[in-house]
Amino acid sequence: MRDRKLATRYARALLGALPDAVEQDRADEFLNALADSVSANVELRGFFLDPATPARAKKSLLETLCATRGLPDRVKTFLGMMVDNARLANLPSIAEVFHLERESSQGTVSATLTAAASLTPELHARAVRALEKLSGRKVNLTVAIDPGLLGGAVAQVGSMVYDGSLKTQLARLR
Prior knowledge:
With 174 residues, the chain is α+β, with helices and mostly antiparallel strands.
């Protein structure tokens, strides 16, 4: 719980420092990629989380990464502050909360549609329209395939789950 509160404070601070939606989107993409890289790469994780690694070296690497991606100076400053406050271990949760806060501020919500088979472009567009109507917000839809559903689909929009799968309907009949 404490980690989530901390992540929310940091994420909201960065979001407030980036007034432009384009900068927010680029920062979101970068934070998620950095968090994924730190989680997946043992050497990088060790470099960032080792207290023996000088803060100057960590900041230098982060500044180089920010410059390479053409990110605003505020993102570089934010990451430097995270280094100074020894918060790089919280990067994955901060990136996750930043993503959710950014979507919320832009009137968008993430949704996942799990279907038994891949969707045609027309069906994908219909699903987006239906979920936008249900949620009352713009939907950023991710599609996943699960042949175990047998047919139909399961949609998750925020914390709401709409289950129209054949697997669930058969389970109810039992």
